[in-house]
Write a structure and sequence with these properties.
The structure holds 3 protein chains of 3 kinds. Chain B is mainly alpha-helical. Chain B contains 11 helices and 2 strands, in the order H-H-H-H-E-E-H-H-H-H-H-H-H. A two-stranded antiparallel ribbon of chain B has the order 1-2. Chain C has helices at about 35-40, 45-65, 70-90, 100-115, 120-140, 145-165, 170, 195-215, 220-230, 230-235, 240-265, 275-290, 295-315, 320-335, 335-355; strands at about 180, 270. The two termini of chain C are about 15 Å apart. Chains B and C meet through helix 3, helix 4, helix 9 and helix 11 of B and helix 6, helix 12 and helix 14 of C.
């Protein structure tokens, strides 16, 4: 160990480059800089935010430990910025990261408008962008490009898993409530398609105003049980604070007692934490990754907890994985030249902490992997903090995501 | 029919929050000529306070319903003495700006301590059932909110109408020059009235905790709607603010229920009404016309 | 001669009767020049030219010292702030809904640039004209009110515009934002923000010059007269509403100019440009720089944009705490704003020197 680090010091002393590249490194500035650009002060700051920076730092440490002296470089750092959920800020920060901070790859970027904008920046500056935080399928559709990869979830994955399995296992008749904007409409369409394909039917659907300043959903919740035929499942596509409002009022109107179950389009473990499992018991949703799924996840979650004091969401794990896969690709390519790294990534089949049966599709840069249909446990079965769900079904990678879209021309 | 009644009931419940917030804004404006931008932040503090009391000290909802308005009313009085008071002799826009800045500070203070994720707050057990009204049933908690708000507004009405404090406040609110001309010392009532307005916002916040998402930004967009409500009712008009609160709540609920294909209607109706009222009856539906500018 | 650079302080016991205004003893016929700039205007010639030259030099140097995209933002916000100050400082009307004009122009500019493929200055001009057109009906209704009521009316209209843009997805792309706004300019490659900055600098300077001309024209002096004593201005036969409306539309145009450039600068438009917090930020910028100082708005824009840029990289999460704290301090202690305070101190020193020598 001591000898290794002494050797590393010697090598570093000679030219600053890694052993593979010797004196003339193929890395710009002899180093790799990862940029985590996300919401660190607003609505998404807890499910990703600064803890994703920690996750990326963990990936760097693991990468260095794995490759030791063979690593393409030992100088790997993280830059981070808060885009405050404002797409114009995301735009400036993404450019500034690349131009001024020497960032080689940008990670995360929640909210669709910001993500689409950063994908543009990546294309123009020819730097890599791994989207994790945004769900729009446009990133692998009409707005796809050579330098953008879509990790983690998207609207198709969320809708397809929950719509199909819930129809098969809980009930065939659905009432869908969605926030009336791009994300919600997208989700409603995907859900309706999945429900229909699984033999169910949507007996009613309503778009709630977005943003909903009054915070009230009672007119929709009152309507649901009166529909004919009566829906067995209420599918809500609201997210974040709006989801919290819907669920609180769902419980107020006792819809579960009236035989209307709840399925949620998009939910993070942080949402369950804030609503408490008691308020959500029995609710189904699709998760991209769950910290207590198996031993590998759990061990990583323990490490993560010792670093951050909290359990990881799937976004944290996906940031870790994306950083790792990028570094591995640079290692394999021996350069941080974006085109060479893209070539390494395209078509690669991976199994890691986050990607199970994962594959980085060359056609549209969708990163496919297993997804999970989760159900919130009743309060009585919750034995430790943050262990709120049981996995009903693993949705195989091949089924979890949509086929490559014809709209995407890389 | 039962659907219509239910939606009407919901409109009144939503309106109850507007009414409580608007009432506080109206008495503050009446007494100090201050449009308190931070009113939404105090509503948020009320809800958050209830959460913190329950989560960290085990204090139940009923106690929070008393403690939070008192604590926030006190905080409001301190703020009034410390900063707002210094600006009341200047153009009222300065206090509007000051309270706007205070809002940013209060939101961020809560955010940096408790994060942005909504905090859990369960409906108290005693109120978690439903009440059967024959034609329809309705969550007990909502019935409670409506009854509580109506009683409270009635009590405020009685205090203002029948007590000496009330007369001073009403006179100072509705006829400020005349009141001063009579030599009534309005000054000593300014701080308590400000505190009272803030207490009402805190109370609305506690009431909202079990049925709305409790997070640092919960008051940010709401306050813009409440501004519209008080302007419609008449800035400084006590009865007007309450009436407009319930009225806007009803219109929004009906809009959402029967015009759900036209979300623009329920989203903008309050601002359209506000603009029309301001131009047609500048002092609001129930306000007294001010001396012309 | 009295010199005032901040809002009139209301008479004791009669706060807020006319919003920004209160009785002032300056005759309207011969209005005293009031902007902070005029402190400079009355300064010796060499001071004036030196300041102007220094300002231009800073503007020319800016993208070399700052990240160019940030410098572009500063230019856009400078126009926005000056447009708000034109109303707040020189007409006595606080618009809390100016995002309506900034944002409408941003969307129009983006749509024109995308669908008509015009060079960006033409698209921006179209956007700004559209904003001015929107300002006409809104202003017509709003200028009937003063003070806090004016602020509320403008806020209400801005909210309506916001919700319309939010719902009109086929045109605005709703939450996803209007992506891919081109920066066409007769085949010149302006993708680099460094060059783009210099491409828009003349437009911004032209806009600022226009604001300066407006303030110092006879029209501008009547506006100040109306601000200080509307009753007297009316008695003197000035059509007060029409003057205010003209100022409102001009202000809408300038805000639109800034918003259009902002859209081209970011090459996309999101709903944020219409949100009420954007209106609030514009007011913060003006108050920080100095109400009624015109150039204070430019300075305020530079400070706020730079501060936010720094904060988002600082790892400090409580951005509102800092901006809100600074804002509260300014409102409580330095109501003249940065520019106003400096101008005030400079004037006082000059006056002291005069006293000594006289």
């Amino acid at each position: 160990m001591a000898a290794a680090s002494a050797a590393a010091l010697l090598v570093a002393g000679c030219g600053g480059g890694g052993p593979q590249s010797g004196g003339d490194s193929k890395l710009t500035g002899d180093k790799i800089v990862l940029g985590v650009l996300n919401d660190q002060s607003g609505a998404y700051s807890e499910l990703s935010g600064r803890n994703s920076v920690k996750a990326v730092e963990m990936a760097i440490a693991d990468f260095k430990a794995k490759h030791g002296d063979d690593a393409v470089t030992k100088d790997i750092t993280v830059e981070t910025a808060d885009h405050q959920n404002k797409p114009d800020v995301a735009n400036s920060k993404a450019q500034e990261m690349i131009d001024r901070k020497g960032v080689d790859a940008i990670l995360d970027v929640p909210t669709s408008s910001a993500a689409l904008k950063v994908a543009d920046v990546a294309k123009e500056k020819k730097k890599l962008y791994f989207n994790i935080g945004a769900a729009t399928t446009d990133l692998t559709g009409k707005s796809c490009n050579k330098y953008t990869f879509h990790y983690a979830y998207d609207t198709y994955m969320l809708a397809h898993g929950t719509g199909t399995v819930t129809t098969e296992q809980v009930g065939k008749n659905w009432y869908i409530l969605y926030p009336n904007y791009a994300f919600g409409q997208d989700m409603e369409k995907s859900f309706s398609a999945a429900i229909g394909a699984a033999g169910g039917q949507v007996v009613g659907k309503d778009g709630a105003p977005f943003p909903n300043t009054s915070g009230d959903y009672s007119s929709f919740l009152l309507k649901a049980p009166t529909l004919n035929p009566k829906p067995q499942v209420l599918g809500t596509m609201q997210a974040g604070a709006e989801l919290v409002n819907v669920v609180k009022q769902y419980n107020e109107f006792k819809l579960r007692d009236k035989g209307v179950g709840l399925a949620v389009g998009l939910m993070f473990i942080t949402d369950i934490h804030s609503l408490t499992p008691a308020a959500l018991a029995g609710t189904t949703y699709t998760d991209a990754w769950y910290w207590n799924f198996d031993r590998q996840n759990r061990e990583w979650a323990d490490r993560f907890q010792s670093e951050t004091g909290t359990r990881p969401s799937f976004a944290h794990a996906a940031n870790y994985s994306a950083a790792m896969q990028y570094l591995e690709a640079v290692q394999a390519a021996g350069t941080d030249d974006a085109d060479a790294v893209v070539k390494q990534l395209e078509g690669k089949e991976v199994n890691d902490l986050f990607l199970r049966n994962g594959k980085i599709r060359a056609e549209d840069h969708r990163v496919v992997h297993d997804a999970y249909l989760a159900q919130v446990k009743p309060q009585a079965e919750v034995t430790e903090p943050w262990d709120y769900v049981k996995i009903l079904k693993t949705i195989p990678a091949a089924e979890a995501f949509r086929a490559p879209s014809a709209d995407c021309k890389l | 029919m039962s659907g219509f009644l239910q939606n009407t009931f919901n409109g009144l419940v939503g309106g109850a929050f507007y009414a409580l917030l608007a009432l506080g804004l109206a008495v503050i404006f009446g007494m100090l000529r201050v449009v308190n931008f931070a009113h939404g932040a105090f509503y948020m503090l009320g809800a958050f306070g209830a959460y913190v009391l329950l989560a960290e000290a085990g204090v139940p909802f009923w106690a929070a319903l008393v403690i939070m308005p008192l604590a926030l009313g006190l905080l409001g009085m301190v703020l009034e003495r410390a900063v707002i008071h210094r600006l009341t002799r200047l153009d009222p826009l300065y206090n509007f700006l000051l309270t706007f800045g205070l809002t940013l500070i209060l939101q961020d203070l809560v955010k940096s301590r408790y994060g942005v994720q909504s905090s859990p707050y369960a409906t108290p057990d005693e109120l978690s059932g439903t009440v059967d009204f024959g034609l329809f049933d309705f969550p007990t908690y909502r019935v409670f909110i409506l009854a509580f708000t109506v009683l409270l507004c009635g009590a405020v009405w009685w205090v203002l109408g029948r007590t000496r404090i009330g007369m001073v406040v009403r006179a100072a609110t509705e006829r400020p020059e005349l009141t001063r001309a009579f030599g009534i010392d309005v000054g000593k009532w300014v701080t308590p009235v400000f505190g009272f307005g803030i207490a009402l916002a805190g109370l609305a916040g506690v009431l909202a905790a079990p049925m709305r998402a409790v997070n640092p930004l919960m008051g940010a967009d709401l306050i813009i709607v409440v501004f519209a409500v008080v302007v419609i009712g008449g800035l400084g008009s006590i009865f007007g603010s309450v009436a407009a609160g319930f009225g806007i709540g009803l219109i929004q609920a009906w809009g959402e229920a029967y015009l759900s294909d036209y979300p623009l209607v329920s989203q903008t109706v309050v601002f359209v009404v506000m603009a029309v009222v301001l131009l047609w009856r500048p002092a609001g539906l129930f306000g007294r016309e001010e001396a012309p500018a | 001669m009295t010199e005032r650079t901040e809002l009139r302080e209301g008479r004791e016991g009669m706060p807020g009767q006319h919003g920004m205004t209160s009785a002032v003893d300056t005759p309207v016929e011969k209005p005293a020049p009031r902007s902070g700039l005029l402190a400079v205007a009355r300064a010796p010639g060499w001071v004036r030219y030196a300041l102007l030259a220094a300002g231009l030099l800073v503007a020319l140097w800016l993208p070399n010292g700052l990240y160019p995209a940030v410098a572009v933002d500063i230019l856009c916000w400078a126009l926005f702030a000056v447009s708000v100050d034109l109303l707040l400082g020189f007409t006595g009307l606080m618009s809390f809904g100016h995002a309506a004009f900034w944002g409408t122009s941003a969307y129009l500019t983006g749509l024109v640039a995308i669908h008509a493929g015009l060079p960006f200055p033409a698209a921006v001009l179209a956007g700004a004209l559209g904003a001015a057109l929107l300002a006409l009906p809104i202003g017509y209704l709003a200028v009937k009110r003063t003070g806090i009521y004016f602020a509320m009316v403008t806020l209400a209209f801005a909210q309506m515009v916001y919700y319309v843009a939010n719902e009109w997805r086929s045109v605005t792309q709703g939450e996803n934002g209007l992506q891919g706004v081109p920066r066409a300019f007769f085949g010149a490659d302006l993708t680099d923000d460094y060059y783009f900055y210099y491409a828009i600098l003349p437009i911004v300077l032209l806009g600022l010059f226009a604001a300066w001309r407006i303030v110092h024209s006879p029209f501008g002096r009547v506006l100040v007269g109306i601000r200080d004593n509307p009753a007297r201005a009316r008695a003197l036969g000035y059509p007060v509403h029409r003057y205010k409306l003209t100022a409102f539309v001009l202000s809408g145009f300038l805000a639109g100019l800034g918003g259009g450039l902002f859209a081209v600068g970011h090459r996309f438009v999101s709903l944020d440009v219409l949100h009420w917090t954007t209106s609030g930020k514009a007011v913060i910028v003006v108050v920080l720089g100095g109400i009624g100082t015109l150039w204070g708005g430019v300075l305020g824009a530079a400070l706020v944009v730079r501060l936010e840029d720094w904060l988002s990289f600082s790892g400090f999460e409580a951005i509102g705490l800092v901006t809100g704290g600074i804002f509260v301090l300014v409102v409580l202690l330095f109501r003249r704003g940065v520019w106003g305070t400096v101008a005030h101190l400079a004037r006082r020193r000059a006056a002291m020197r005069r006293d000594r020598s006289g």
